[in-house]
C-alpha cells in the first residue's frame, strides 16, 4: 500500500506542542515509508479560524522543517466536493433533512437528560414521512435554510475501530447519534469533511491525537455509508503538564513559535517532541536522519506523556553542542539583534560565544550572557559596582591598567605574572583582584574565567573599559 498521511490543523490558534508532535509523527512515518505527507487546513469553523493563524501554522511548520508534499489544501475551498457527497447520501436515503427547531432540540435534550438517557437527537425527522430529498448543494439563495442534513446512522450493530496504538475499540451503534453533516447555513461539519477529505485525498493512515478517538466510530460509519474503505487509524497519547492535566497555556509556552523566539533549535524541539510518546531504547538525542530511519508507529506508547520544559532545555543544549563557534554566530545573530547589538567582527563574536557556550542552554540565553562582549558601553549591575568598584579597588584597577598598557597582548602568559605580582604586593586573594576587573569589564560578577575574558576582549577594549570604570 502506498503511504499517504496528512496533518490537518484547524487555524483557530497557533501551531502548538501537541499539533507539532502530530505533524512530526505523520512526517516521520511518511519519510520512512517513502510516502506522501499532506497539509490540510481545516478552516470550516469560520468564526474561530483566521488568516493569521493559518499563516502562523505554515510558518511554524516551515521553521520546524516539516515540509509537505501536497497542499496546503483549505477546506473552505472544497465546498462543492462536500456538497456532492451530501447529495449522494441524500439520494441514497442515507441522510435526511431535519427541520427541528433549536428550541425543540433543546427540549428533547433536557427530556433525555431528565430520564437519565444520553442527550441524543430523537430522530423525529428521520421517522416522519421524508421530505422530498432535493439537493443540498443546489439550494438557491432564496430558498429557506431552516433545515440541516443529518446522517441516518445504523440503528443496530457495533462499529469496531482497529487502532495501531490503542488496539480494538468496539462501540455499540445505539450509542451513536444521527449527526449533523450539513448545518442549516450550508456548511459541512468536522466529522463529515474529514471523511470526505481523507477519502478523496486517498489517505492510507490517519495519525492524530486521541482526543479524536471518540469521533472515529462515527467516521467509520460515514466511510461505510459512502462505500469507501476506512484508513488505518493510529491515535496518539495525550500530552500532559507536570500537574497531569492536559497541556495548556497554564503550563507556560505551548506555541511552537514561542520556542523559536526563545532560542530553541528546530531540530531540538523535534527531537524532544518525538520522545513524547515514542522511544528507541534509552536514546534521548536524535538527529532528524536518525529519527527518520528509526521511527515506527509500533513503538509509540499508549500512556500519556508529560511535557517537561527543563528536559526540553537540556535537549536543546545537547543539540547546540553540534554546532561550531562560527555556526553559532549565525544562529545567535537574531538574538543579539533583539538586544540591539549588531555583529561587526565575526571572529571576535565566535570567540566570545565560545567562552559562554557551556552556560547558554538556548540561543536567547547564550546571546544574553555573551552580549557584554559586543556592547560598546558596559551595563553595570548596581550591587556589583557598590561591592567591587570601591575607591580602594579603583586604585588597584588603575595600577592594573598601567601595567597592562605596557604589554603587547593579553594572553595568559602576559596576564598571569602581572596579576600574581599585584596580588602579592597588596597581599590580596585572587578573588579580590579578579572581581573588580570582572565588574569593570563585564558589568557583573559572573563571567567566564577572567584571563579568558581579557584575552578575548583584547588590550584595546580592556583598557577602554577599565578607564570607563575608573570614571
Ligand atoms: N482539525 C482537527 C484538529 O485540529 C484534526 C482532525 C483530524 O486529524 O482528523 O484537531
* Unreliable spans: 137-143
- Count of domains: 4
Class from secondary-structure proportions:
mainly alpha
Tell me, briefly, the overall form: elongated
Mean pLDDT: 93
Strands, count:
12
**Biggest β-sheet description:** 3 strands, parallel
- The helix count comes to 19
End-to-end separation in angstroms reads 76 Å
Radius of gyration: 32 Å
Report the CATH C-level class of the largest domain. Answer: Alpha Beta
For the biggest β-sheet, the strand order reads: 1-2-3
Give the SSE layout:
Elements (H helix, E strand, L loop, with lengths): L3 E4 L9 H16 L3 E6 L9 H14 L5 E5 L4 H13 L3 E4 L3 H13 L9 H4 L20 E4 L6 E6 L3 E6 L7 E3 L7 H11 L4 E5 L6 H11 L5 E5 L2 E2 L15 H6 L4 H9 L13 H7 L10 E2 L2 H12 L4 H14 L7 H11 L6 H12 L7 H7 L2 H15 L6 H15 L3 H13 L7 H21 L1
Parallel strand pairs: 1-2, 2-3, 9-10, 11-12
Antiparallel strand pairs: 4-5, 5-8, 6-7
Helix pairs in contact: 1-10, 6-7, 9-11, 12-13, 12-14, 13-14, 13-19, 16-18, 16-19, 18-19
Bound molecules: glutamic acid.
The site of glutamic acid has 7 residues, from loops.
Which keywords apply here?
Helicase, Ruva Protein, domain 3, 471 residues, 48% helix, binds glutamic acid, 19 helices, mainly alpha, 4 domains, Glutamyl-tRNA Synthetase, domain 3, three-stranded parallel beta sheet, Rossmann fold, three-stranded antiparallel beta sheet
Written description of the protein model:
By secondary structure, the chain is mainly α. The protein has four domains: 1-71 and 237-322, Rossmann fold; 80-182, Glutamyl-tRNA Synthetase, domain 3 (Alpha-Beta Complex), CATH 3.90.800; 325-373, Orthogonal Bundle (Helicase, Ruva Protein, domain 3), CATH 1.10.8; 382-470, Arc Repressor Mutant, subunit A (Orthogonal Bundle), CATH 1.10.10. The chain has helices at residues 17-32, 51-64, 79-91, 102-114, 124-127, 190-200, 216-226, 256-261, 266-274, 288-294, 309-320, 325-338, 346-356, 363-374, 382-388, 391-405, 412-426, 430-442, 450-470, and strands at residues 4-7, 36-41, 70-74, 95-98, 148-151, 158-163, 167-172, 180-182, 205-209, 232-236, 239-240, 305-306. It has a three-stranded parallel β-sheet. The longest helix has 21 residues, at 450-470. It is elongated and about 105 Å long. Residues 8-10, 42, 194, 208, 212 line the site of glutamic acid.
Amino acid at each position: 500500500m502506498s503511504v499517504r498521511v496528512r496533518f490537518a490543523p484547524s487555524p483557530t490558534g497557533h501551531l502548538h506542542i501537541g499539533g507539532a508532535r502530530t505533524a512530526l509523527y505523520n512526517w516521520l512515518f511518511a519519510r520512512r515509508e517513502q510516502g506522501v505527507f499532506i497539509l490540510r487546513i481545516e478552516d470550516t469553523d469560520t468564526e474561530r479560524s483566521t488568516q493569521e493563524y493559518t499563516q502562523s501554522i505554515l510558518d511554524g511548520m516551515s521553521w520546524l522543517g516539516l515540509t509537505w508534499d501536497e497542499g496546503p489544501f483549505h477546506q473552505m475551498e472544497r465546498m462543492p466536493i462536500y456538497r456532492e457527497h451530501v447529495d449522494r447520501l441524500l439520494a441514497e436515503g442515507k441522510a435526511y433533512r431535519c427541520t427541528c427547531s433549536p428550541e425543540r432540540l433543546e427540549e428533547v435534550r433536557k427530556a433525555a437528560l431528565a430520564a437519565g438517557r444520553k442527550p441524543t437527537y430523537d430522530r423525529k425527522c428521520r421517522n416522519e414521512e421524508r421530505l422530498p430529498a432535493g439537493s443540498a448543494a443546489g439550494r438557491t439563495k432564496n430558498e429557506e435554510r431552516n433545515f440541516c442534513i443529518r446522517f441516518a446512522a445504523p440503528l443496530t450493530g457495533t462499529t469496531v475501530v482497529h487502532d495501531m496504538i490503542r488496539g480494538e475499540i468496539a462501540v455499540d451503534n445505539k450509542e451513536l447519534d444521527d449527526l449533523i453533516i450539513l448545518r442549516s447555513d450550508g456548511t459541512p461539519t468536522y466529522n463529515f469533511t474529514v471523511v470526505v477529505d481523507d477519502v478523496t485525498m486517498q489517505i492510507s493512515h490517519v495519525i492524530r491525537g486521541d482526543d479524536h478517538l471518540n469521533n472515529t466510530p462515527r467516521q467509520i460509519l460515514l466511510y461505510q455509508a459512502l462505500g469507501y474503505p476506512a484508513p488505518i487509524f493510529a491515535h496518539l497519547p495525550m500530552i500532559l503538564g507536570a500537574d497531569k492535566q492536559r497541556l495548556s497555556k497554564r503550563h507556560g509556552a505551548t506555541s511552537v513559535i514561542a520556542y523559536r523566539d526563545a532560542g530553541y533549535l528546530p531540530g531540538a524541539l523535534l527531537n524532544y517532541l518525538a520522545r513524547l510518546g515514542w522511544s528507541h531504547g534509552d536514546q534521548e538525542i536524535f538527529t532528524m536522519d536518525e529519527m527518520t530511519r528509526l521511527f515506527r508507529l509500533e513503538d509509540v506508547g499508549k500512556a500519556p506523556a508529560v511535557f517537561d520544559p527543563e528536559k526540553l532545555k537540556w535537549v536543546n543544549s545537547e543539540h547546540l553542542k553540534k554546532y561550531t563557534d562560527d555556526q553559532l554566530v549565525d544562529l545567535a545573530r537574531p538574538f543579539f539583534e533583539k538586544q540591539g547589538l549588531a555583529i561587526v567582527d565575526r571572529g571576535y563574536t565566535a570567540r566570545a560565544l565560545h567562552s559562554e557556550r557551556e552556560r547558554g542552554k538556548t540561543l536567547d540565553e547564550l546571546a544574553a550572557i555573551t552580549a557584554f562582549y559586543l556592547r560598546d558601553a558596559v551595563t553595570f549591575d548596581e550591587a556589583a559596582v557598590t561591592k567591587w568598584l570601591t575607591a580602594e579597588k579603583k586604585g588597584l584597577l588603575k595600577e592594573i591598567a598601567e601595567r597592562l598598557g605596557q604589554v603587547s597582548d593579553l594572553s595568559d602568559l602576559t596576564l598571569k605574572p602581572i596579576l600574581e605580582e599585584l596580588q602579592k604586593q597588596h597581599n590580596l586573594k585572587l578573588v579580590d583582584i579578579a572581581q573588580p576587573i570582572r565588574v569593570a569589564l563585564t558589568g557583573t560578577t559572573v563571567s567566564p574565567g577572567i584571563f579568558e575574558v581579557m584575552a578575548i576582549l583584547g588590550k584595546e577594549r580592556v583598557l577602554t573599559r577599565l578607564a570607563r570604570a575608573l570614571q
